[in-house]
Amino acid sequence: MIRFQALPLLLASAMLLLLAGCASRPVNPPIAQADPTAGYRLETRAARHGERENLLVLAFSGGGTRAAAFSYGVLEYLRRTEIRTREGRTVRLLDAVDVITGVSGGSFTALAYGLYGDKLFDDYEQRFLKRDVQGEIVARVFNPAHWGTLGGVATGRSEVAAQLYDEILFNGATFADLQRGNGPLIVASATALSTGSRFTFTQRQFDIICSDLGAVPLSRAAAASSAVPVVLSPVTIDNHGGKCGSQPPAWLRPFLDSNDPPRPAARAFRTLRAEESFRDSTQRPFLHLVDGGVSDNVGMRGVLDTLEISEALHDAGLPSPLDGKRRVIVFIVNSVSSPPTDWDRSQTPPGAVQVLLKATGTPIDAFSFEAVELLRDTAARWQSMRKVRNSAAMAANKDPAVAAALRAPDAEIYAIDVSFAALSDPAERAFLNQQPTSFVLTDDAVDRLRQAAGRIIADSPEFQRLLGDIGGRVVAAPAGKGAAARQP
After folding, report:
1. Counting Cβ atoms within 10 Å, is residue 371 exposed (0-12), middle (13-18) or buried (19+)?
2. Minimal CA–CA distance to 146: which of 230, 233, 263, 215?
3. Which of 162, 277, 291, 477 is most open to solvent, judged by the fewest CB atoms within 10 Å of its CB?
4. Residues with Cβ < 8 Å from 137, sequence gap 6 or more?
5. DSSP for residue 126
6. Cα–Cα–Cα angle for 120, 125, 130, nearest 5°?
7. Cα separation of 107 and 224, whole Å?
């Protein structure tokens, strides 16, 4: 989520409130019939890539260009990390990635990699990371040529930003282009302003609102995911829900009206209920989306929901999304910074803008920490339950109630923390923490963020444990473009 250097846009916003116009915004088209087996969703990507025993997820946090550069450094490092497949082939770990979630700044790197694949490494720095994107947005906001769009009904600054993102990075691409590709599923997240819940750009989510995700430009998804409240306007989409026969999955229906959702999935079911409310397009014909960091600044909520639901279904003896998985590998790429302040040295309190930024940022950072700890707690709980279940004492215990109480998915969870706090060099850690959350950084800062990501992964004990378990190594130079095999 972007929190710094917002004053120019705030001033422009106040001025443009006086303007009115008749500009239109892009409209996401309706679908006549929802098809849960088609479109851009995890199930169709999994079918294309074949059955895998591992689920590998990269979760890219928010944080403007800081987040975009840091997550790009992760892609670079995984590109030069090789693993051995069950068939004895050597492939890049990057080619084993199944899902990349992206929030705010992280969504740009995620969406661009999903679109371009290895071609991203040729020019992403010049096209986006080492460019004053924020300055270009401000220039367009102050340009009278764009004032009709800025003052139009249901349009605004985010639509101007989306046009810029399309010109400099996405080149008119839509989610249909991602669907035609062979890369991982890219899940860009925004926040539905009315419910405060996550809104993901996947066809599963768009089935609920009876709309075709394939026609949605990637630039609008990036704009919605990074639409900082007040600084940038919400991105408005049309809700056609209730008109295409879309239904919640069969396993979910018994729980939707329950006041006692299955444990430990209460948080996940709260999100699912919020999504289900979008089916009523009579009461909600439009949805207004803002920065994904408001609801989940590290892109981890979807991962946690999947784990919690899988555990609850497994406990109930029902099929779960993780059946057949040996490993769930999550790289938590968290560029949330914690720059120090000197406020407590003075009896004069900080100004209104500083208070506003701190008041909104502190809860977001706290939730980011909680999300990472929840993943680690889940990994420890599953591991402990498996150890007890497989112990000699349990083998002798024939009580089915005891065995049922120790049910847990068989997958081993690897939670690989890629955050500034994990950096061993205190001077470099301080430098990265000082980088603003904006869409402009110095070239030196971009390079140091990229390099830091690789160092943090290399030093991670959890990453080393993963390499030891799957048979991997880090090569000295990036692997060649393209990969013949994607099966880990």
Report:
1. buried
2. 233
3. 477
4. 9, 157, 160, 161, 164, 439
5. I
6. 155
7. 10
Give 57 or 394, the one with higher predicted confidence. Answer: 57
Position 488 pLDDT exceeds 50: no
CA torsion angle for 396, 397, 398, 400 (degrees, to 10)?
A: -150
What stretch of H or E contains 291? strand 286-291
Closest by Cα among 51, 70, 49, 48 to 59: 70
Average pLDDT over residues 190-202: 92
Among residues 112, 272, 255, which one has the least CA distance to residue 184?
Answer: 112
The answer to whether residues 13 and 157 touch, using CB atoms and an 8 Å cutoff, is yes
C-alpha span between 72 and 57 (Å, rounded):
15
8 Å CB contact between 152 and 25: yes
Largest CA distance in the chain: 79
pLDDT score recorded for residue 422: 92
* Residue 20 scores a pLDDT above 70: no
Instruction: Give per-residue pLDDT as tens, 123-147.
Output: 999 999 999 999 999 898 887 765 5
DSSP per-residue string spanning 130-197: TS-HHHHHHHHHT-GGGHHHHHSTT--HHHHHHHHHIIIIITT-BHHHHHHS-S-EEEEEEEETTT--
Q: Which of 223, 255, 250, 253 is nearest to 236 (CA)?
A: 223
pLDDT at residue 367, as a whole number? 61
Question: What integer pLDDT is reported at residue 1 of this predicted model?
Answer: 52
Structure confidence at residue 476 as a pLDDT band (50, 70, 90) = low
pLDDT tens, 402-457?
555 556 678 899 999 999 999 999 999 999 999 988 999 999 999 999 999 999 99
> Can you give 403-427 as a three-state secondary structure string?
HHHCCCCCCEEEEEEEEHHHCCCHH
- pLDDT at residue 381 above 90? no
Position 461 confidence tier, pLDDT thresholds 50, 70, 90:
very high
What is the DSSP secondary-structure string of 313-381? HHHTT---TTTT-SEEEEEEEE--------GGGSSSPPPHHHHHHHHHHHHHHHHHHHHHHHHHHHHHH
Spatial contact of 42 and 186, defined as CB atoms under 8 Å apart = no
Q: What per-residue string of b and e applies to 242-273 under the rule 16 or more CB within 10 Å gives b?
A: bbbebebeeeeeebeeeeebbebbeebbebbb
> What pLDDT sits at residue 11?
47
- Element of type H or E holding 219: helix 218-225
Report the C-alpha gap between 297 and 292 in whole angstroms.
6
Which residues are bridge partners to 103 per DSSP? Answer: 189
**287, 236 contact by CB (below 8 A):** yes
The pLDDT of residue 100 is above 50? yes
Q: How many alpha carbons fall within 13 Å on the CB side of residue 264?
A: 15
